[in-house]
Specification:
Blueprint lengths: L9 H5 L15 E9 L3 E2 L2 E2 L6 E9 L4 E9 L2 H4 L3 E13 L5 E11 L9 E10 L2 E8 L9 E13 L2 E11 L1 H4 L10 E12 L2 E10 L18 E9 L1
Antiparallel strand pairs: 1-4, 1-14, 2-3, 4-5, 5-6, 6-7, 7-8, 8-9, 9-10, 10-11, 11-12, 12-13, 13-14
C-alpha cells in the first residue's frame, strides 16, 4: 500500500491536486475549502488512481489562535484499496516568528482513512513544516504505516517563484525512507527513493490551473508497469481547482 501527502497547497505542486503552490497556513477564524480535478492522483510519486482521473475536495476551519482542523477527500482505485474513496482528517497548529513574522511554521496530525475497505490500512502521520519566502521544508513521520506497525519517514522541500503576475514556477523534491518502503510485504519498490516535480501554476478568474512533470528515481527493478494500479512512471499532471 502507499499513501499520500497532506493535501493542502503542496498538493498542487506534486500532482495531488498538483495538488501538491505551497501550503498557506490558516491564520484567521473562518471556514474555507477547495475543489479540484486532476488527471492522476499521485502521492509521493505513486498513483492512487491507477493513472486515472481524480476529483478532490477539502474543507477547513481555522481559529485566530493558530489552531486549524479539516478534512480532505479523493476518489481512489478500488483495485488498490478495496475502497472507492479516501478521506483524511487533520488538525494542527500554525504560528509565525521573526522581526516581521517572515518565518512561519505548522505542526499537523493527519488520519488517513478508506471507508469500506475490508483490510483496514488507516493510520496516523505527524508532520512539521517551516516556511520562508517561497521555500517550504517539511518532515513527515508515522510509526504505523498502513496500519502495519512499520515506521516511515518523508522529507520534502518545495519552492515557488513568481515569474509573472499570477504565474509561478513550482518545484518539489521528496525522499521516502524507512521500513514502510523497504519491507518486502509493503509493495514493489523495496527501497528508499526520491520523487520530484517541476511545473507552473496560475489563477485565472478565481480558478487555479497547474501543469507539472513528476517522476521518481526508483530503479528499473522497482518500476511498476504503467497498467498496474500503483504505477510510478514519469507523467504530466494537470489540475484545475477552485477555492472558496
Amino acid at each position: 500500500m502507499y499513501k499520500k501527502l497532506n493535501k493542502k497547497r503542496i498538493a498542487q505542486i506534486v500532482g495531488l491536486s498538483l495538488s501538491t503552490a505551497l501550503f498557506a497556513p490558516l491564520a484567521q477564524a473562518e471556514f474555507s475549502g477547495e475543489i479540484s480535478a486532476t488527471n492522476d492522483y499521485r502521492f509521493r510519486g505513486v498513483s492512487q488512481t491507477a493513472g486515472d482521473f481524480a476529483v478532490q475536495g477539502s474543507l477547513d476551519y481555522s481559529l485566530e489562535n493558530g489552531l486549524f482542523f479539516g478534512a480532505w477527500a479523493s476518489n481512489v482505485d478500488k483495485d488498490s484499496y478495496d475502497a472507492d474513496v479516501e478521506i483524511d482528517i487533520y488538525a494542527g497548529y500554525w504560528g509565525a516568528f521573526g522581526a516581521d513574522e517572515e518565518w512561519e511554521y505548522d505542526v499537523t496530525l493527519t488520519y488517513y482513512t478508506y471507508p469500506g475497505q475490508d483490510d483496514s490500512s488507516q493510520y496516523l502521520e505527524l508532520n512539521a513544516g517551516i516556511y520562508y519566502g517561497g521555500f517550504h521544508l517539511a518532515q513527515w513521520y508515522t510509526n504505523d504505516y498502513a496500519n502495519a506497525d512499520l515506521s516511515l519517514n518523508y522529507t520534502e522541500l518545495n519552492y515557488s517563484y513568481e515569474i509573472f503576475e499570477n504565474w509561478s514556477i513550482d518545484a518539489h523534491v521528496g525522499y521516502s525512507y524507512g521500513e514502510g518502503v523497504n519491507d518486502p510485504d509493503m509493495g514493489d519498490w523495496g527501497e528508499d527513493y526520491v520523487d520530484y516535480s517541476i511545473g507552473v501554476s496560475t489563477e485565472l478568474g478565481g480558478v487555479g490551473l497547474s501543469l507539472a512533470w513528476l517522476d521518481t528515481n526508483l530503479s528499473d527493478d522497482n518500476i511498476i508497469d504503467s497498467k498496474e494500479p500503483w504505477r510510478n512512471d514519469g507523467t504530466v499532471l494537470a489540475t484545475v481547482s477552485y477555492a472558496f
